[in-house]
Amino acid sequence: xxxxxxxxxxxxxxxxxxxxxxxxxxxxxxxxxxxxxxxxxxxxxxxxxxxxxxxxxxxxxxxxxxxxxxxxxxxxxxxxxxxxxxxxxxxxxxxxxxxxxxxxxxxxxxxxxxxxxxxxxxxxxxxxxxxxxxxxxxxxxxxxxxxxxxxxxxxxxxxxxxxxxxxxxxxxxxxxxxxxxxxxxxxxxxxxxxxxxx
Length: 198
Prior knowledge:
GO terms for molecular function: bis(5'-nucleosyl)-tetraphosphatase (asymmetrical) activity; nucleotide binding. The protein is an alpha+beta fold and 198 residues long. It is 20% helix and 36% strand. Strands 1, 2, 3, 4, 5, 8, 9 and 10 form an 8-stranded mixed beta sheet that branches. A hairpin with a 6-residue loop joins strand 1 (10-22) and strand 2.
């Protein structure tokens, strides 16, 4: 009789954010926030209890980039999902905490065991869903939160390069870029696809 290995359970986390762009003479530029360690991404964060995904996206964009709801013109009918799983490991108490979305994190958070000796806290298996909306802004000035180290506005090719380690994020960016190009190239349809959210 062989013993089966225990099945690792996954904790589900749902986040939301905006792919923010602004129009320039060179073409649309996309806002990317810098988390450190060559990690660039869009403003996003966990959905709080009793909060809808769109509310969370507006809140997180305000918190992380300083862009208020009235500064964003939301694209109608654009909502994309990024799904992935990873193993979250914890750090030592007192050391700088890794960014919440960083996947490549070394262990260890130490906790007191029953006999006063430190022990490793178990890593968590996370199944993550991130919901992205698309919004245009005219405001190039960003006020980043303390969890970020910087930001930049990138044209599409440069933004793709900055996110080259994260294929899922590149896919979201491509969908946003294609959407913006299609809206610009089809003005005769008569439908306003980008509108100011109230």
